Amino acid sequence: MKQLVILGAGTAGTMMANHLSHHLKKPDWQISIIDEKDEHHYQPGYLFLPFDIYSPGDIVKTIEEFIPKNAELIKGKIDRILPKENKIRMDEGTEFNYDILIIATGAKIAPGETEGMEGVEWRKSIFDFYTFEGALALRDKLKDWKGGKLVVHITEMPIKCPVAPLEFSFLADSFFKHKHMRDQVEITYVTPLSGAFTKPKATEALEHLLKEKNIHIEGDFAIEKIDNEKKEIVDYGGRSIPFDILVTVPTNKGDELIERSGMGDELNYVPAHKATMQSKEYANVFVLGDASNIPASKAGSVAHFEAEILTDNIMRFIGGKPLKDEFDGHANCFIETGNGKALLIDFNYTHEPVEGSFPFPGIGPLRLLKESRMNHMGKLAFRWIYWNVLLKGTHIPFVSATMSEAGKQYN
Amino acid sequence: MEKIIAGKSIAVNEEGYLTRFDQWDENIGETLAGEANIQLSPRHWEVLTYLQNEFKKEVPLSIRKVGKSGVVDIKEFYQLFPVAPLKTATKIAGIPKPASCI
After folding, report:
1. pLDDT, tens only, B51-74
2. What topology is assigned to A2-106+255-318 in CATH?
3. Class in CATH terms, A111-252
4. B64 contacts in chain A (CB < 8 Å)
5. Is B98 part of the annotated catalytic residue set?
6. Strand (E) or helix (H) holding A2
7. ipTM of the predicted structure?
8. pLDDT of A100-136, one tens digit each?
C-alpha cells in the first residue's frame, strides 16, 4: 500500500486530508496525518478573545473530530523529515515511509527574535494575540485597565493574517468607546510597512478608517529592541515609542522541525513553486498553507483555495501527468472595523483589493473594500462555515479557488 | 513614466523606482542618493552592489536577509541609509522595491 503523509492537522492539513480521502482509498493508498496536539483552534477567533466577544469554548474543538475515517491520525512529536530517504522520523525514534509528503506545519510567533520582547514585562504589559494564552492574558489585562498608551505593533513581515493587527486596533477603539473611556486611551499603530497595508487602494481605505477612529499610525518602523524599564519600543534608526500596553505581533516563523530537516529558508519556510505548491527541491513533497515561502498571504482562505488546486495536482502527480500551475495567490479576508461593521477584501498575486461586489458581480450581497454590517455578519458566520464546511474540504458555493475579476472596479 | 535623471530619460514607476535595471549606471545612483540626501561612500557602494547581485539572482530581499548577509548588519544599514533603508537603498540601486510585504 502506498503512503501519503500529511504533517500538521491544522486548517491546511485537515482540509487536505478530507479532500484526498475522497480520491485515495485502501488498499491502494493509506493517508496518515501527524500532529502532536489534541486541540484544533479556530485561529481567527483569537482576535475576539481579548475583547470577550468570543469565549474559549467557541474556538476550541478536538483535532480528531475533523479527520476523515479512512485517514490515520498519528499523535506525536516529529523530530525531522528525511527527504532524501522519503522518511519521517518521530521524536521517540519511530520512522514512517512516504510516497508523497504534504507539509502543513504552519507558522507561529517567535518573540525570542526581538531583544527584550520576552523580558520582565512579557504578558504583564507586553502581549501577543496570536496565541491562545496570549489572547487570554490580554483579555484579563484589558478588563480593568484604566487607560493610557496602547501600542499595536507588527515586528516584521510576513505575518499570519496581515490584517489582524489592524482589526485589533479597530476593535480596541470600539471596545473602549463602549466602556466610555476612549478619551483615556491613546491608540498608536506601528508597522514596518510605509502605510496601513501592502496594497495601495486598501491602504488608502484603511488609513481613512484609522484617521476616523483617531488611531495614530507610525510607519517604516523596524524594531531593534524593547526597553522593558522605560516601556518603549526602539527602532534601528533610534526612533522610540512609549507604551503602557504593547500588543505586538512578534516575528512569525515556520516550525523548528523544518530547520531540523534542513528544508527551510531563513524563517523556516519551505521553498515551493507559487502556482503548484510543489517543493522546489523534492518532487514528491508539497507545501500547503503558512508553512510555505510562496508570496501569498498566510491565511486560512489562502490554504482553502490552495487545497482545491493541490488536490488536483496530487492526483495528476500520481497519474504521471504535468501539474497545473494554477494557483494565483487568491485571498479573501473579512476585516473587522468595529461597531458591528466589517470590510471585505478579495485579491491575488497580481490584482490588489479594490471596490466592488462579492461573490455575485454587481449584486453582492457583500461589498468589497467598503464598511458594512452585512460584511460583519459574514465574518461572524464564517466561524460556522469554518467548522462545518471549510475543514471538511467542501467547496464553498460561488467562491472559486482562483480569483474572479468580475464585479470589481479596476481602472 | 519617464524621469530625467543625471541628464538621461529613465523609465520609473509612480514611486520613482527604476523599471529597467539596464538603464541604471553609477551617475544615476549618485543622483538618486542625492535626492535622498545621502552622500555615497565606498561602504554604501558595497551594500548597493550586494543588493543588485541579489536582485540578479532573483533572491527576494528583506531587512532580515540583509542583516544576515555578512555584508552589513542592520545597525550599520540604518546608519548608511537612515530612513527606511531597504526602500531607499533599492531605489538608489535601480532595482524594484522589495515585495517582502504581502
Report:
1. 999 999 887 788 888 988 899 999
2. FAD/NAD(P)-binding domain (3.50.50)
3. alpha beta
4. 156, 266-267
5. no
6. strand A2-7
7. 0.79
8. 999 999 999 999 999 999 999 999 999 999 999 999 9
